[in-house]
Design brief:
22% strand; seven-stranded mixed beta sheet; six-stranded mixed beta sheet; binds nicotinamide-adenine-dinucleotide; alpha/beta; Aldehyde Dehydrogenase, Chain A, domain 1
Length: 483
């Protein structure tokens, strides 16, 4: 496949088992070059209605809900296997539209396949319970799907985040309408080609492409949907929750983060440096659970600043297709926001140790890996999500202060501690207000481990067995038995 083949294609919506033409399209660009590579459909309000009608008909048919759950499991294993045959195509397209390294784009498709395999194994294990009420009653619970589950997907890991919610939703018997992100919608089309090829009931899985403010807003405010699963920014999430509250539509919210890793005096610094390399600079820092603040004990502060900055300076920044360590950020707008935050951090008194600027010698949207030291916990750079390759290093003197700094933002997605002492590692998690805690390795865990936020980082959990709880409602049945 070459660039031209990608460019020749106008990518469409997938509704009721068919690829739908569209009157309007959005140009999709390669952030590594700034050039347009394809165009993606914009689903109109009529397309949104068509998808909801098709989804409702699928719910009513019972094709997913009332079938034997093992049938859903088989369907999901077929989807996983179709995804696996498309990993190279999907990775290539994902790399072109996001600029991320090819290996990372490949890992996303592998992860998408794993989600379907993992939740296929759960489809026939979503069990209720029997509740003892005494001789005159039989009481039991059924865990039922919501019905039409709407999933809004962000641009940073579109195929894997889509699979993260789609797989458990289908396992539980929901019918799903997905809205793709406008900046990186193409790799998700490959995912939906896999779904189409695997064979799913008509209307069971639908894809709408387009802008958030039009297509997305029409979808989440549609009167006939039963659940919203939103992954994206706090600002959009809050506006969706407000709209959903009008109709009491339940939401899962996976929002932003400003996560801190605490480096205690006894930490293994090799582990710290490796964690910053992946935690701060993976996907050019465009990760909700990025390690964006390092809170370091004063006895090792200078050494940590020096080692982390040396690692950042050694990273090769370039087009993901040619195997660089770090690709571009997703758009010129995003690059401008990141640079602006770096400029304001300098003005506020943070010490720029390395980076801080865009790379002017490249045609795309490349940011230098950036490290700030002497950051005050109240500065904007230590409080607001940058969503770029920028680390803030903050000093602490005693343990209480470290936990206080780590918790002192409006977010609560992930947190980490670096220490060789078991007692510190075990005492830290209860003191950290976050949905997950890493010890000595940022991003430790997998699709099997629950993931989600506290505070403004959201609510509900994805991944692991616990995600199934987000996609079912419990119904209690109490039967009065004749004596
Ligand atoms: P965003 O909120 O701008 O957009 C996310 C999605 O919402 C896109 O598909 C967009 O088209 C859609 N959207 C925008 N306005 C809408 C509206 N009014 N109604 C319905 N849909 C609308 O976020 P983004 O810039 O794409 O993603 C980056 C953000 O996502 C960051 O804050 C990041 O931390 C967060 N994120 C969170 C997780 C997580 O699991 N917690 C994962 C990835 C990204």
């Amino acid at each position: 496949m070459n660039l031209l083949e990608v460019r020749d294609k106008s990518w469409m919506n997938f509704v009721n088992g068919e690829w739908l033409h569209s009157a309007d399209f959005i140009a999709v660009e390669n952030p590594a070059t700034g050039q347009v590579i394809a165009s993606i459909a914009v689903a109109s309000e009529d397309d949104v209605s068509r998808a909801v009608v098709a989804a409702r008909a699928c719910v009513a048919s019972g094709a997913l809900t009332r079938c034997r759950p093992s049938i859903r499991a088989e369907m999901m294993m077929r989807i996983a296997s179709e995804i696996r045959t498309r990993i190279e195509d999907g990775a290539y397209i994902g790399c072109l539209e996001s600029g991320k390294p090819l290996n990372a784009a490949r890992a996303e498709f592998e992860e998408a396949a794993r989600y379907f395999e993992y939740y296929a194994g759960m489809a026939d294990k979503i069990e209720g319970s029997a509740i003892p009420l005494g001789g005159a009653y039989l009481d039991y619970t059924i865990r039922e799907p919501h019905g039409i589950s709407v999933h809004i997907v962000p641009w940073n890991f579109a195929p894997s985040i889509c699979a993260r919610s789609l797989a458990p939703a289908l396992a539980a018997g929901n019918v799903v309408i997905v809205k793709s992100p406008e900046l990186t919608p193409l790799a998700m089309i490959i995912l939906f080609e896999a779904i189409e090829q695997a064979g799913v009931p008509e209307g069971a899985v639908n894809l709408l492409c387009g802008y958030g403010k039009t297509t997305g807003a029409a979808l989440v405010s549609h009167p006939d949907i039963d659940q919203i699963v939103f992954t994206g920014s706090v600002q959009t999430g809050v506006s969706i929750m407000k709209a959903a509250s009008e109709r009491s539509v339940p939401c899962v919210m996976e929002l932003g983060g400003k996560s801190a890793g605490i480096v205690f005096a006894d930490a293994n610094l090799d582990q710290v440096v490796e964690s910053v390399k992946s935690g701060t600079f993976y996907n050019a820092g465009q990760v909700c659970s990025a390690l964006s603040r390092l809170v370091v004990h004063d006895s090792i502060y200078d050494m940590v600043v020096e080692r982390v900055s040396a690692m950042a300076e050694a990273l090769e920044v370039g087009d993901g297709l040619v195997g660089a360590d770090m690709g571009p950020v997703v758009s010129e707008l995003q690059l401008g926001k990141i640079e602006g935050m770096c400029d304001r951090a300098k003005s506020a008194g943070a010490r720029l140790v390395t980076g801080g600027k865009r790379l002017h010698d490249k045609s795309g949207w490349f940011m230098q890996p950036t490290v700030f030291a002497n950051v005050d916990p109240n500065m904007e750079i230590a409080q607001a999500e940058v969503f770029g390759p920028v680390l803030s290093i903050i000093k602490f003197h005693n343990d209480d202060e470290a936990f206080e700094i780590a918790n002192a933002t409006r977010f609560g997605l992930v947190a980490g501690v670096f220490t060789q002492r078991l007692d510190i590692a075990l005492k830290a998690p209860p003191r950290l207000n976050a949905g997950q805690v890493f010890v000595n390795e940022w991003f430790a865990g997998g699709i099997e481990t629950p993931f989600g936020g506290n505070k403004m980082s959201g609510h509900g959990r994805e991944k692991g067995q616990e995600a199934i709880d987000s996609y079912v409602r419990t119904k209690n049945v109490a039967i009065s038995l004749p004596l």
